[in-house]
């Protein structure tokens, strides 16, 4: 891979992980609100799960961006995203008028997982 290609992959890694590292930062800054959000979604025990969420988002993103065990970072972020999507964007449980918006959020996260996988694979190209 050329230097320019390496730079583009690095930029792609920053962009595809932006929702995670921004979320980790905001969840840390507003930790009480994070716990309240978890509880509102029925996630218990909220405090340790919130802490684990922040760690997965921060370290998974760093692993991919810094190219240090990028596959491990992507697998952690992908597993988190699938679980969080099924809890937070369960459009099939929403009233009919809200399903489309919920499905859009769900599908956006599906695309995000695809982007994570693509960037991780690009990290392994020579």
From TrEMBL:
Transcription regulation found in the keyword field: no
InterPro entries to which the protein is assigned, alphabetical: DoxX
Domain of life: Bacteria
Transmembrane segments annotated in the record for this chain: 74-94, 106-125
Pfam families: DoxX
Keyword Transmembrane set for record: yes
Keywords associated with the record: Membrane, Transmembrane, Transmembrane helix
Coiled-coil regions listed in the entry: none
Record membrane topology: Multi-pass membrane protein
Compartments, as annotated in UniProt: Membrane
Name under which the protein is recorded: DoxX family membrane protein
Organism: Halodurantibacterium flavum
Lineage: Bacteria, Pseudomonadati, Pseudomonadota, Alphaproteobacteria, Rhodobacterales
């Amino acid at each position: 891979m050329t230097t320019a290609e390496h730079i583009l992959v690095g930029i792609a890694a920053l962009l595809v992980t932006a929702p995670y590292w921004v979320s980790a930062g905001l969840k840390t800054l507003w930790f009480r609100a994070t716990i309240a959000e978890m509880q509102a979604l029925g996630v218990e025990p909220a405090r340790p799960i919130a802490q684990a969420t922040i760690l997965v988002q921060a370290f998974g993103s760093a692993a991919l961006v810094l190219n240090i065990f990028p596959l491990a970072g992507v697998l952690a972020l992908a597993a988190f995203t699938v679980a969080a999507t099924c809890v937070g964007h369960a459009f099939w449980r929403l009233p009919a008028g809200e399903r489309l918006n919920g499905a859009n959020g769900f599908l956006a996260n599906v695309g995000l997982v695809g982007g994570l996988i693509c960037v991780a694979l690009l990290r392994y190209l020579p």
